[in-house]
Amino acid sequence: MPADASDHPQAEARRAFYRRIDPANLTPLWEVLSALVPQTPRTAAQPALWRYTDVRPELMEAGRLITAHEAERRVLILENPGLRGQSRITQSLYAGLQLILPGEVAPAHRHTQSALRLVLDGEGAYTAVDGERTTMRRGDFIITPAWTFHDHGNEGDQPVIWLDGLDIPIVDFLGAGFQEKGGADVQAVTRAEGDALARYASNMVPMDFHPRPSDPTRVFVYPYAQTQRALDGIAASPIDPHHGWKLRYVNPATGASPMPTIGAFAQKLPAGFETRALRSTDSTIHVCLEGDGMARVGEQEFRFSQNDVFVVPSWHPLHLQAQRDCLLFSYSDRPVQQALGLWREHKD
Ligand code: GTQ
């Protein structure tokens, strides 16, 4: 291979050539081709686990050092150890843990990045999305699609913590980031709580609602109680050897993922169950909502329990083993890969 042929008779002449063309912003493809077009998926992202019991005290310390208002969003980013300094948990997606203390407000803004929240800890907070509030309850999956105004507030008496998942690296890659502050910290409420669920998530939609296939869903909260009911409801049927009992969240009006850039999933694994190895091209972030178990990701093993987060990079085989009945939430860039015809999985 030319790249390694430093003893090749032309090696010195080649290096001189590279140096000569360098000022003209030219560089030889053959030195980098195999890295650019790999045999199998390559990512600098590494398998990693964040234990909630380790992160929570640090988040509470952040709560003593800065207010939600000052920070705009008081978040500790979960940075992939292979991608430090890049504010991302996988090559394409961002994750962080956000804290909002009693009485605090994270002021209204909107941006072209799409966001999801998975509520982990505490009660009494709300998220408002384009004029409607939803009370945040543990396990709720809440979305703020691109360019929707959102603010968060805590009207209760406990700290509230949730996981944020955003497509920040995708929007950055495309150079398409815009943001705008709201006119007021707390946006005006224009619809009653539950309006979106009644209007768009009751096997019915408004008379004049004809979404295009790529439109994000108007349902912006997927309550945990519904997720649990759905997973319990399929648990009477045979379990899938690779997934356990697993469902994906959809836009009920189109069947597509709730947002075009991020797919989200929930799965149940009964105590003692072990999945067969599965690999896929979408690097995936997992959150343990119930139970505890073990994730083997390539060579690494992670013991996880409630509220722990672990990441499985592209094409790494994943084995899951439930010690106690588990409910796992996960998200990835799968809809993007599928839209581009790139997504693949391999089942052992
Ligand atoms: O809640 O709007 O973790 O804009 C990062 C950027 C959360 C948010 C983050 C954000 C938000």
Automatic annotation (TrEMBL):
Q: Which InterPro entries match?
A: Cupin_2, GDO-like, Gentisate_dOase, RmlC-like_jellyroll, RmlC_Cupin_sf
Database matches in Pfam families: Cupin_2
Q: Recite the UniProt keywords alphabetically.
A: Dioxygenase, Oxidoreductase
What enzyme category does the UniProt record give?
A: oxidoreductase
Q: What is its EC number?
A: 1.13.11.4
What Gene3D superfamilies does its record include?
Answer: Jelly Rolls (2.60.120.10)
Q: Which GO terms describe its molecular function?
A: gentisate 1,2-dioxygenase activity
SUPFAM superfamilies membership: RmlC-like cupins
Domain (Cupin type-2) ranges: 97-164
Supply the PANTHER family for this chain: 1,2-DIOXYGENASE PROTEIN-RELATED, CUPIN
Instruction: Indicate what this protein is called per its UniProt record.
Output: Gentisate 1,2-dioxygenase
Q: Which organism is it from?
A: Panacagrimonas perspica
